[in-house]
């Protein structure tokens, strides 16, 4: 009996000696660090994520600390996201925990260009993205206004989200008008861009192709304002906002109402499918891509103008 009891104890002792004799894993030291970009130009309010490359790739400790030397111009978080705060220059530095190796990126924060709509004095930001010049905010031209109950697929109608009235001055002082602009039915959208034009399906595709189809929903959305904090990086300064829509339901009504502000943004295309439907581009709070489809022309959607 004593021998049987001793065998397990002996086995445990042997295992303990074996593991105690094993050498510790060797520590592989960091030799250098580089950043995905050494210089970066951002519009104020835009952001971009910098990434690190550690050498050797199998270094034991790859953590870095991020810092900005001028946080009033540009900030950086622990994930390397740089946000431009105001016009100026800043330097972002990544420092490795192991060995204090550093890499830097020079940041230039610049303001967007502006133009004035002579019809009403509204001033708009605009940006150049690839070969195109886009308004960097939704159109706010509002000659008349109606509530969501009124609509047409042939006559122009103009809406302001959550406003149910017909006094233009009152609609213009709402938070929704200031933040998101005007919602237009398709007939109104066709003529809304004075001196500019409503983009076609091809022109929308040119934009999303340039910024990257798989990430357009991230790079074009603003860095705040989208539900559940599913914001974008606004890498190109397009600043897409979730303005929602004036929706018309034939199933539960018929009646019109406002819907989806904070979750979705919808923008008209000048292309129509038929006499009743026209095309649009949409972005959602949960989407990394953009989508195109068609919708009835009496819906109220946002407008982005493209320079002629």
Which features does this protein show?
elongated; 2 domains; four-stranded mixed β-sheet; 308 residues; three-stranded antiparallel β-sheet; 17% helix; 21 strands; single chain; Immunoglobulin-like; alpha+beta
How would you describe this protein?
The structure is a single chain. 17% of the residues lie in helices and 33% in strands. It has 308 residues and is an alpha+beta fold. It has a four-stranded mixed sheet, with no helix packed on it. A three-stranded antiparallel sheet has the order 3-7-6, with no helix packed on it. The longest helix has 20 residues, at 2-21. The termini are far apart. Mean pLDDT is 92; it is low at 6-15 and 17-22.
Strand and helix layout:
Blueprint: H1 2-21, E1 32-35, E2 39-43, E3 47-49, E4 52-55, E5 64-68, E6 74-76, E7 81-84, E8 88-96, E9 102-110, E10 113-116, E11 123-129, E12 132-135, E13 158-159, H2 168-172, H3 175-180, E14 183-184, H4 186-190, E15 196-197, H5 201-211, H6 216-219, E16 245-249, E17 255-259, E18 264-272, E19 277-284, E20 291-296, E21 306-307
Parallel strand pairs: 2-9
Antiparallel strand pairs: 1-4, 3-7, 5-8, 6-7, 8-9, 10-11, 11-12, 13-14, 15-21, 16-17, 18-19, 19-20
